[in-house]
Design goal:
single chain; alpha/beta; Hypothetical Protein, Haloacid Dehalogenase-like Hydrolase, Chain: A, domain 2; globular; HAD-SF_hydro_IIB; Cof
Length: about 270
């Protein structure tokens, strides 16, 4: 039996230091050699998918929690925020002194609050790559018009996340950040009604794989719709409690070869 496998990035493929375990590279590359299809399905925008990730090799990519779909270098779907909504959200952030990060295919745009915070956080978790990551961001303020925004991240505390959710959830998807190391101090905003599951269906239909059996592996709340939608939903051991509860099974955490072990269990690859 051949499978279509959807793999999340942060906390699933990448560990907290933004490194890909060698076992995960082996698993993905050998599953593809065995005739399975392996797709990335991430909350990251295209500008955040660096060569070190893409070089692993995938059959297609879903970015921005379903907002942008790419297959063989061609765009299958690209949904962006309404420009008036972006301006309203920026005004809300600035009024409440909330740092923000606008995620686009063409770049990563941050205000000074978010950039300063990221530089401090990332140098502790990924000292070798922090400068490269943060230097790729473009600092903006509310005076610029940023077009084609796929997703937004924002700073929060345990207290004001609930307030932000209350203020905005009627019009947008609001969740805690999907990067494990910053989950409790940052949140994400995406387009209402768009998620990884419907994007997976669109991609499979485009390729002609609607009837293939499906597996998804993830660790965050933005993976839940997909994990419940596929034939086999697998949570990483480091996944959120909501993610684990939504899944058919739980593998080991990312630091202990969770992705590789799940591929072995389902006979997608031979052991090393």
């Amino acid at each position: 039996m051949k499978y279509a496998i959807f793999v999340d990035v942060d906390g699933t493929l990448l560990d907290n230091k933004q490194q890909i375990p060698e076992s995960a590279v082996y698993a993905i590359q050998n599953a593809r050699k065995n005739g399975h299809y392996v797709f990335l399905n991430t909350g990251r925008c295209k500008a955040e998918l660096f060569e070190s990730i893409l070089d692993v090799g995938f059959d297609g990519i879903i970015y921005s929690s379903g907002g942008y779909i790419e297959y063989e270098g061609q765009c299958i779907r690209h949904l962006t925020f309404d420009e008036n909504d972006i301006q309203s959200l920026i005004q809300y952030f600035e009024k409440n002194k909330i740092g923000y990060y606008l995620e686009c295919n063409h770049g990563m745009y941050v205000d000074t609050l978010y950039q300063d915070w990221m530089q401090e956080v990332f140098k502790d978790f990924m000292p070798e790559g922090a400068e490269e990551y943060t230097n790729s961001m473009i600092v903006v303020d509310g005076s610029q018009q940023i077009y084609e925004v796929n997703k937004i991240s924002f700073l929060c505390t345990l207290n004001n996340f609930d307030q932000i959710y209350t203020d905005l959830h009627e019009h947008f998807n609001i969740i805690k950040n999907t990067i494990p190391m910053i989950r409790e101090v940052s949140g994400e905003i995406s387009i209402k009604g768009i998620h990884k599951a419907d994007a997976a269906d669109i991609l499979l239909k485009h390729i002609g794989l609607e009837d293939v059996s499906t597996i998804a592996i993830g660790d965050s709340d933005n993976d839940i719709e997909l994990l419940q939608h596929v034939d086999i939903g697998i949570s990483m051991g480091n996944g959120t409690e909501k993610c684990k509860a939504a899944c058919d099974e739980i593998t080991d955490d990312v630091e202990h070869d969770g992705l590789y072990k799940s591929f072995i269990k389902h006979h997608l690859i031979e052991s090393r």
